[in-house]
Amino acid sequence: MSLDPDVRIDSRCVRLSAVREAPASYSHDFEQARIEPGHAWCLCNTSNPQRLVIRRKSHAGTAAAFFLAGWPEGGESHHIDCPFFKEAEDESGKSSESKSCFEESVDGTFRITPQFSVSLKVDTVVRKKDPIESTPRPSETTRGATLLAMLQYLWSETGLHRWRAGWNRDWGRVRYEIMSKAEDGQIGRRPLADVLYIPPRYTPVGAEKNKAEFAARQEPLFVSARQFLEAQSRIAAGKAASAVRETLFIIAPLRGLKESQFDSYQIQLGHIAQPVYCKAPLMQRLQRRFGRVLNTLSAEHGHVIGLFHVEGTPRGHLQLLDAGFMRVSSRFIPVDSSYEETVADALVTANRDFSKPVRIEIGADSLDGKVLADFILYDTASRRCYMEVYGVQGREEYEARKREKQHIYRQNGVEIWEWDLTRTREMPALLPRVERTAS
Fold it and tell me: The pTM is what?
């Protein structure tokens, strides 16, 4: 089960769950701890307490609320079942290049440098670049995060690539974790939470309320689209004008794709009734890049999460600018194939503690030579079991990488679980679980 560690705020020790349930009850302690020593302590490992960042979130009309966040680059020192645990640097999908696109500060805030514009300004005669004119793959020279890299980063930073015994996870939990993280972030010069929408989990009771909230988030897109076109018309007529066309990022399950009229496609998102329209050339580019992922929609148990960058049209529709797609399991663990999904589902069913390292996509970045396992199992006798699913056949580059991984694992004497699909289609038995105790 996930730990509920004691935390020390100023001179007061209390359970983390109590702080999260009623943070206002500890406001005085938070205020004092922010002054001296400037942080709180996590006592998940009593022999080695770890610092925690104290963050303050103000809401209009209410008292300031405080919350705790993990200290940057100290996550691996927490107990493995602690909510503040993070994988060691060599077990993460981050690299020097990805770190330049996702800048993290000591206070827990972060800034995303995107490879694209968050909004478009017009004050001269400007022809808007159509998204289909973009390159068919992420640029290898332009510094900045792609939409897929953003999605992978948010998934990893919120721990959605992990699973612990006793956990449960639905879309509501996914939304809560990412929205909480977004409160601490910026994309370019914009607060990430201001330009990010994640739909609440659909329920018949909340459908109308959710629809109204989404309509309110869309309205600035439609207004700015009309103003933008009016400004272009004035400039074309030799008159002074200025306008900004706003865009929005949506994270949601991908429910379906279908051809529409006027050489376009309708994209249906989970938990949202309104479709997003995509021009056919852009859809062709997305199919070329994400074909393997998108094809899982036709499978019986395929699950795909997308980060959709959209703008409004003057007629009140959502138009896709670009998207990034990631395959996930039924419990939203990132996976790269149906076989990895089989492993992820088996681990969840067996109530195991594991993570799925996620490689952050940044152009042709090579992860600085790091070797990432397909999964890492934390509850075996060795406390670290590296799990590999070998499924690609007939590619020498893949076979060479496979041999390199196996050599590195042998050199380091680590415990390995392997499923080689060239030998058997039946998943091998999992290694036995060994119970751990908090130190």
Answer: 0.85
Distance of CA 399 to the CA centre of its chain: 30
Q: Which residues of 64-220 form beta strands (DSSP E)? A: 65-70, 102-104, 110-112, 119-122, 162-163, 185-187, 190-191, 196-197
Query: Which residues lie below 8 Å from residue 61, measured CB to CB, with a gap of 6+?
Result: none
Non-local (6+) Cβ contacts of 22 within 8 A are none
Tens of pLDDT, residues 291-345? 999 988 865 566 999 999 999 999 999 999 999 999 999 999 999 999 999 999 9
How far is the C-alpha of 42 from the C-alpha of 332, rounded, in Å? 28
Report helix angle 171-182 to 147-157, nearest 10: 100
Residue 90 CB burial class (10 angstroms; 0-12, 13-18, ≥19):
exposed
- Name which CATH class applies to 340-420: alpha beta
Q: Which of 404, 345, 352 lies closest to 378 in space, CA to CA?
A: 352
Distance CA 280, CA 174 (A): 31
Q: How many residues does the chain have?
A: 439
The residue assigned the tokens 């995303």 is 112
User: What DSSP state is assigned to residue 36?
Assistant: T
Under DSSP, the state recorded for 120 is E
CA distance 157 to 164: 16
Residue type, 306: G
- Give Cα 231 distance to the centre of its chain: 36
Pure H helices in 74-157: 96-101, 147-157
pLDDT of residue 115: 92
Which segments of the chain belong to CATH 3.40.1350?
340-420
CB atoms within 10 A of CB 191: 13
**Of 333, 350, 351, 4, whose CA–CA distance to 164 is shortest?**
351
pLDDT in tens, 87-102: 877 777 777 777 789 9
Beta strand pairing call for 354-355 and 162-163: antiparallel
Are 335 and 344 spatial neighbours (Cβ–Cβ below 8 Å)? yes
